[in-house]
Amino acid sequence: MNRKLDIVGVQIDLGASQKGVAMGPTAIRYAGLKAGLEKMDYEVRDKGDIIPLLDGDSRPDMLHYEQVIDANRRLYDEVYSTLSEGRIPVVLGGDHSIAAGSISAVSKFYENKGPIGVIWIDAHGDWNDNTTSRTGNMHGMPFSAVCGHGPDEMVDYGQKPHYVDVKHCVQVAGRDIDRLEIKKMKEAGMNTFPIYEIDKRGMYEVMQDAIRIASEGTVGIHLSFDVDAVDPAYAPGTGTPVYDGITAREAFLAAEMIAQSGKLISMDMVEVNPILDEVNRTGILASSLIHSAFGESVY
Ligand SMILES: [Mn+2]
Question: If you placed Cys at 265, which of 25, 36, 101, 220 could pair as Cys (CB 3.0 to 4.6 Å)?
Fold first, then answer.
């Protein structure tokens, strides 16, 4: 497996109502992200953070769209150049809107090799667009955008987007998804493993299916991990908490299984909010989950 990693952060919270996740990259770094990866014999380069424009246009259906899209365009360039150098991108949010730039770059980079799979672990669907969103918050839209179900502004920077095929995509641990969003996901044919599937079948079986869906016929898996998938008891530092989520152990199991699949080609860790956190425990959890996804184990 490729042992060269690039960390890139995005100090953005303009895609969310609750502010503070812009400080997420710092919290995850301070939790020991780089040192932990180096201990596992990765060569790690930290490319620093993308900082959004100080001002920009906004619309009620896409709040702060100019700043969000500009940051995503710059992230796209960073992730694409990392992949071009034969390295693996580890993207730190920031709010989840950044997955638009991140995944677009991965999908475009592998365009001629084959499709990519996406495993999206999140309490929310992130399948809204600007016509279905009740808030205009763009962190609720990136998953649909990368699949070509809008808003296209989030993923089209003039590069001719290479959309991800929903048949290789999985939503895991969903428990707070809007009615219109559900309709959109169903119509598009999204694969979903909501929280009750995890209750019924356990995380192990669910992740076996998720990994199969995202890896069969693909060049590899992009993991987009929103810490709000985890119950606020373990991850209090997040902007859009939803009670009764997965446990920290279930999150680790999911990450470990992705590592063991050998198919991980890139990842995002998003929505850590240090303002709402307790002595950085959510930052530490996020950092540790990245370590697990890249193969950290007890023995
Ligand atoms: Mn999310």
Answer: 220
pLDDT attached to residue 232: 98
56 CA → ligand 1 middle, Å = 23
Type of residue at 118: V
Average of per-residue pLDDT values in the chain: 97
CA of 89 to the centre of ligand 1 (A): 19
Between the CA of 225 and the centroid of ligand 1 the distance, in Å, is 8
Query: Is the backbone of residue 114 left (phi > 0), alpha (psi -120 to 50) or beta?
Result: left
Active site residues: 96, 122, 124, 126, 139, 226, 228, 271
C-alpha Rg value of the chain to the nearest Å: 17
User: 226 C-alpha to center of ligand 1: Å?
Assistant: 5
- What residue ranges do the domains of the chain occupy? 4-293
Distance CA 198, CA 22 (A): 30
Overall pTM surpassing 0.70 (yes/no): yes
CATH fold for domain 4-293: Arginase; Chain A (3.40.800)
Q: Where residue 299 falls among pLDDT bands split at 50, 70, 90?
A: confident
Give the model confidence (pLDDT) of 6-18 as tens digits.
Answer: 999 999 999 999 9
Neighbouring residues of 120: CB distance < 8 A, sequence distance ≥ 6: 99, 126, 143, 169, 170, 171, 172, 224, 226
